[in-house]
Amino acid sequence: MSEHGTEPAGEHVSQPGTPARLEGSDGIPERFTNPGLPPHVSRSADLDEKAAHRAERQVATLFSISMVATVIFLVAYFAIDQKTYQFIPGIGQASLSNIVLGVSLGVSLLCIGVGAVHWAKTLMPDAEVTEARHPQRSSDQARRDAVQTIAAGGTASQLGRRPLIKYTLGGALGLFAIPLVVQLAGSLGPLPKDDLSTTFWRKGMRLMRDPEMTPINVTDVTLGSVFHVLPEGIDKSPHVLEEKAKAAVILISLPAAVIKIPKERDWGHEGIVAYSKICTHVGCPVGLYEHRTHHLLCPCHQSTFDVTQDCAVIFGPAHRPLPQLKITVDAQGYLIAAAPFLEPVGPSFWERG
Amino acid sequence: MKALGSHRRHPAAIVILLLLGLIATGGLYSLLAPRAAQAAVATTDDMTAGRTLFLANCATCHGISGQGAKIGPSLVGVGAAAVDFQVGTGRMPLAGPGVQAPSSKQVMFTNQEIASMAAYVATLGPGPSIPESQYTNGDGNIAMGNELFKVNCAMCHNFAGSGGALTRGKYAPSLRNVTGNHIYEAMATGPQSMPVFNDQNLSPTDKNDIISYLHDLDKSKNPGGLSLGNLGPVSEGMFVWVFGLGLLVGAAVWLGSKAA
Known about the structure:
The structure holds two protein chains of two kinds.
Chain A: H1 44-47, H2 49-79, E1 85-88, E2 92-95, H3 96-122, H4 140-156, H5 163-186, E3 207-209, E4 226-231, H6 240-247, E5 249-253, H7 262-267, E6 272-276, E7 288-290, E8 295-297, E9 304-306, E10 312-315, E11 324-325, E12 327-329, E13 335-337
Antiparallel strand pairs in A: 1-2, 3-4, 4-5, 5-6, 6-11, 7-8, 8-9, 9-10, 12-13
Chain B: H1 2-6, H2 11-32, H3 47-57, H4 59-62, H5 79-88, H6 111-122, H7 142-152, H8 154-157, E1 164-165, E2 171-172, H9 180-189, H10 204-219, H11 233-256
Antiparallel strand pairs in B: 1-2
Helix pairs in contact in B: 3-6, 5-6, 5-9, 7-10, 9-10
């Protein structure tokens, strides 16, 4: 510790009281010297035996509190009925068992930790120690020896003299790597094929209410209504959840006159339009429809789509409008899909671009 | 004063000043915020009474025959259910202009007066009527109600019925402790930003199932206590960022400090 507080030396050092300046070379030293460690300050527990005793008692008290809390936990675990509710200030009406178990276990572990840290800070040695780093390079002798050992092993195994062994061993080891790669690639599951680009919707499928799965008659859809829709037969599909995550549709009835895009009007039926409910940003269900402004809002990142403009994005991080499902009416007056979705629904993926 | 001034560079001064500012702003707002005007009303229980009440309290915005004006929408065809909902929840008469009418505990009219006005507005054009009590008493299928709620309502009104934000300051209100009648009427009439869920979309039985689910939510207890408004990741994340990280920062500072 003799280097503590080493005085920087040399004519480049500015005089005390002279502010260091950036412009010119006379304000700052050409090279900063290592100031070293600050002088070691002894703690009160190092100097005073009484203070050390006090610290010992404090640590012991913390550990004792931990023991008491653990006992409280054990007693409460068996003693308090889980259905007991109790008003606790700041928390409100809550299950007494939950609160007591959580607080007692938390206090128990916290006191062990706080006690250990307090012990380390007040009583364990805190003298600063400087250790030089060992050189990483081995000695020249050790390096020569290592090369010699490897070369000797190569000669003794006769690998150089017997090429048949060398090539067959190479072939065996090389081939053995293939099963490992095949298993890894094979366990990634079947290829997605066009799953990302297609949905359950097919031409002629009826629009069904979610979750009742009943068909929707065109007369049911009064102005200002919103229906949450799934394709007919999706509940019989072998992968219902995966299919629902792509095929969910929102059916909105708005005055035909407010629709600004002719394509939207043509793909709907007298102001009733159907759009994919899967956000083109990251695939949340877009369901917050304001029937006065005709805005459709995604709850996850506030992407807002204008239903009067073919669900164009008017706010938020989504990049593409929601895909529209072309609908029409069948002979019994039920709404059916006139075509499947003509573009992939939901967020972007590599091949989609 | 000099003693106070000497503390102005204290680290806590900025926090205290900020708190004082917030309290002053909040206090002033609660004192000066616009209040609903007290309307003097007569009480008779026939249709003409409803018309009289309408002319005295509603016609300024909605027009003398409820045909609507620049500042208020037409009431032709909104039905008795809309009047019972809007006036019965204290949304109407509107306290002041805003993006939407907030519900208020202060209902301006008696049930009798609301019934009279509803009866009058129902004569303006056919619309949803006040539901029968068998569809609003909340004794339906709670599990089915939960499923219907999640598909049709939860995206705006939140999984726990706590409400949520819409665009430009509009919001979906909380559905906690709302009467079955008012929940039913809101679905049937589509007040403000809410779309209509007519009886062909959600049948009266479906509506009663949803009411049953919401009433079950009102009754259910929270074993963890503090629900942080049941708002999901926003309030819970905020809590963890403020208190959890605050605690961790405090612990790190304590660990790094030397013992005296």
